[in-house]
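Residues pack. One example:


***
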Amino acid sequence: MQGNGQFLCVKNWARFQHYKDRNPSWIKLYRDLLHDYKFRKLPDPTKLDLILIWLLAANHEGMVPSDRAYLKSVLGLRRVPDLKTLIEQGFLLENASIPLAQRRDREEKSREETSTALAVNGG
């Protein structure tokens, strides 16, 4: 993932995930979003920004670069996305790093893969 080195994290990212151990080509999008007051009050273009950011975040464990020009390009927008509003309304979190639980899951998966590879190769 390119960008300026700073990242944003999608708030409550786990809620959009059905599978914890694989990377499906889709995300969950709940109908109750239509009843979410904060979402409904977003300007229409910013609603689109958010949904496209969620799709991009699906490839990067809930993280996206905090680089408006990069996001404009990769999301196929005609204008830069309104990250300021999405942050102010709590849909995106600034200064994101990979949450500790995700790091632990990743490390555990890596250890399991290494253990399996050693067992298969007789190591």
Observations:
- DSSP finds five helices and three strands in the chain.
